Amino acid sequence: MLNRFFLVFLLILSLLFVQVAHAAEVVVYSARIEQLIKPMFDAFTEETGIKVKYTTDNEGALLARLQAEGKNTSADMLITVDAGNLWAAEQAGLLKPVKSEVLAHNIPMHLRDPNDQWFGLSVRARTLVYNPKKVKVSDLSTYEDLADVKWRNRLCLRSSKKVYNQSLVAMMIAEHGETETERIVKGWVSNLATDPLPDDTKALEYVAAGKCDVTLVNTYYFGRLMSKDPNLPLAVFWPNQQGSGVHVNISGVGITKYGRNEKAAIRLLEFLSSAKAQNLFADLNMEYPANPSIKPDAFVASWGDFKQNPMNLSKAGELQTTAVKLMDRAGYK
Ligand code: FE
Collapsing DSSP states into helix, strand and coil, what is residue 198? Predict the structure, then answer.
């Protein structure tokens, strides 16, 4: 009899244990590739004992999957790039707000959602890169100035189909209004030395090869190219330093609305914003830590300090459709 009670007791105990063990994990859907996330997850597991399971795919596929899975999703956290994508996930009702003093302290206001549904964890700067053999630094000043006739046949741009340029133009609309932004974008288009290029790396290669003199790219593409060939005639310029600052975007995180491990997921999110994880998160992709108390990697720091545009990145999402239509009207392909 005693034995039977003991067995039942053991059974209940093991069921409880299984439940606790099940709770001690976080499931992540990530548009950032494995090499860029695994080191932080390993550090988190080591510190907390909480396991992190992850699936990586492109952002479109992950959003579609979250939407299709609805309440049955196993995902607790979404990691993706560009505020435009995080904003879209919020609009689709896939995320939930997180009130956290740690996050409010670690992540500057402009890099997180005003409704607390997403948080930037690394900063990507979309800036000017020029060929120092062909451009005098004193001729460079702002994004807007690239519309000036002095840049005729000297500008290369990545296609307007990529969210990076859509976000840049959306932020310009927020700052200047539609009419003025359309004038600027039309000016860019008339200054193009070649049709818009498929990616940032191509645009940099064109500048290095002398096919154009200046372009607009995220600095980590510059970093990747320069670490392969440090002698390329390419240099970074930080525009709008007297005015609104450099256009930045984020790679960031939201907690899913229907995830089952909310507590552990918030703990992971807070960990990712902390000093311990910020360098891992940013340095692996040559980005800037979102947490302003953390210094970037030395190679990245060697490109110089700059002032970021402090406007809240939710504008990039809100005005994305307007930006796409505007670029179309301006003939920016
Ligand atoms: Fe990129």
Answer: coil
Q: What's the CATH number for 124-247+314-329?
A: 3.40.190.10
Distance (Å, whole) CA 302 – CA 144: 26
Residue 142 CA, ligand 1 centroid: distance in Å: 22
Q: Please say whether the dihedral angle defined by the alpha carbons of residues 228, 230, 232 and 238, taken in this order, is positive or negative.
A: positive
Report the separation in Å between the CA atom of 7 and the middle of ligand 1, taken as the mean of its atom positions.
56
pTM of this structure: 0.90
For domain 25-123+249-296, give its CATH number from 3.20.20.105, 3.40.190.10, 3.90.1150.10, 3.40.50.620: 3.40.190.10
- Residue pair 240/228 in contact (Cβ under 8 Å)? The answer is no
Report how far ligand 1's centroid is from the alpha carbon of 65 (Å): 22
Summarised one tens digit per residue, pLDDT across range 31-59 is: 999 999 999 999 999 999 999 999 999 99
Q: What is the DSSP letter of 110?
A: G
Distance of alpha carbon 8 from alpha carbon 150, whole angstroms: 84
